[in-house]
Amino acid sequence: MIHLSTLHKILRDNKTPFSCKLWKKNGDILIYKDVVCTSSHHASNTATLLFTESREIRKVKVICIFEINDEEIYI
Hints:
Elements: E1 2-3, H1 4-13, E2 18-23, E3 29-41, E4 46-51, E5 57-61, E6 65-68, E7 71-74
Parallel strand pairs: 1-7
Antiparallel strand pairs: 2-3, 2-6, 3-4, 4-5, 6-7
């Protein structure tokens, strides 16, 4: 298990691709594979993720991420 503060450090410092699972607003689960965090903002609690294959960019709420590289996140 990884603490939420450690997740923030991973997103801020790690430029290698990772996989993660997160909740959507309606409760659905999204699975992101081979993404890289291009930026993270602690004040707004968001991260910008880049999909390495499609080059698509998504902004997500960090608190919605509940798993990264098959390790659960706890608060």
